[in-house]
Amino acid sequence: MASIPTPQPVPIRLEGIVKRFDHNVKGRIAAVDNVDISVAPGELLTLLGPSGCGKTTTLRMIAGFEHPTEGSIFIGDHDVTRLRANERNIGFVFQNYAIFPHLSVFENVAYGLRVQGRPEAEIRSAVEQVLDLVGLGGYGTQQPHQLSGGEQQRIALARAIVFQPRILMFDEPLSNLDAKLRGQMRGEIRELQKRLGITTVYVTHDQEEAMAISDRIAVMNHGSVVQIDTAEALYARPCNAFMANFIGKSNLLPGQVLQADARGAQVRVLDQTLQCLQAAPEVRAGDAVRVVVRPEQISLAPGGGPGSASVISRTFLGEKTEYQVQAGTATLHAVAYGAGASARLAEGQAVQVVLPAEGNAIIRD
Ligand code: ATP
């Protein structure tokens, strides 16, 4: 299998980064507001968040296409805050591949090396190696229009890595591809990134893509990082209501803290006592809180009786059945997988709701 020598992976560090645009329609409101992020050597970190939250601006500052109003950016031990983009040794893959339509696949990838005046033999060997690496071996003489969208995206990838960059950056690289190809390409990008071991920053607004491709995800909103962690941790321990609803679906159930210590908190929710994870800031006995309960964590069983609830709506979706359930004043979203009894409940039916006994997150806002 082809491989190109890659430099030692380097960390990236953003310290107190603020970006204000002079001509922003919102006035001088910060597009990026006091962001601290550390990316470990060889890590793939994704910036994820709703439109306008500042992901692209953050990425462009790391790449050197924009300069921060305040704060510092380090690549390895070097403060690169004031360096130009071409002095940072970063490979960049954009959403629109920026491919030259009149150049062959080979020449598209060779272009930057030719501009640098590298010797012909070196160019030939480097381009052939990266074309093999991205699965385009043998495509060198083709014209870009003869290739599919996925193959064109591979040209862009080859062009980014042919310089042996210290860092790779992706800005919504898969947005122009259909859903099936997106799934395939994200797998290929991840596999290549791991193989090369290059520290990578990836921007997307697609939550599933972020979860599938990343070592860790930094979720941004209104210019700030809300939470940064692995996909599993963000799902299990969202830090606030925005996070609980942004990563997956959740029920935010009101509860009362019965007792709490450093390890956890007992919370009374819907007539059940749950052993929950301590929140930050810590909760204390008597606090009114909300508990994050995912739809798939709710067990529904047919049957009435004290504390029973009723099915308001049922949506059959093949491998799963979604329900809305009224339990006292709370409306719950629940989901049942497979074809068991819990997937065959009818609208109007009385049901028993069982919440997970332990491990759920508490939020304070
Ligand atoms: P999207 O997913 O829609 O691309 P984003 O999270 O990448 O959004 P940014 O493109 O970083 O968000 O934009 C953040 C904020 O900064 C927005 O309010 C945007 O209007 C503003 N902004 C970005 N670039 C400029 C610019 N060159 N001049 C003025 N304002 C800008």
Automatic annotation (TrEMBL):
InterPro entries: AAA+_ATPase, ABC_SmlMolc_Importer, ABC_transporter-like_ATP-bd, ABC_transporter-like_CS, Transp-assoc_OB_typ2
Coiled-coil ranges (or none): none
PANTHER family: SPERMIDINE/PUTRESCINE IMPORT ATP-BINDING PROTEIN POTA (PTHR42781), SPERMIDINE_PUTRESCINE IMPORT ATP-BINDING PROTEIN POTA (PTHR42781:SF4)
UniProt entry tagged with the keyword Transport: yes
All residue ranges annotated as the ABC transporter domain in the record: 12-247
Keywords of the record: ATP-binding, Cell membrane, Membrane, Nucleotide-binding, Transport
Name of the protein in question: ABC transporter ATP-binding protein
Annotated organism of origin: Candidimonas humi
Sample GO molecular function, one term: ATP binding
